[in-house]
Amino acid sequence: MQKITILKALKIRKKELDENHPHLANSYNNLGLLYKDEGDYEKAEEFYLKALRIVEKVLGENHPNRKIVRKNYEELKK
Q: What's the predicted TM-score (pTM) here?
């Protein structure tokens, strides 16, 4: 249920927001978390990398959201 909700939110956000909007990064990060929990590490990595590209481009290196996404991605790689 939660994944369906996040996928619906992502679809709406993609339609309404710029492709580099931080809200899209939030959806990508959340999907990364869900796919990681399901054991689909390849899909999780895909979403984490999408989130990282946005937050690094738009929010910069020191933004708390960037640190969260980076931490999630690093934990996945372990």
A: 0.88
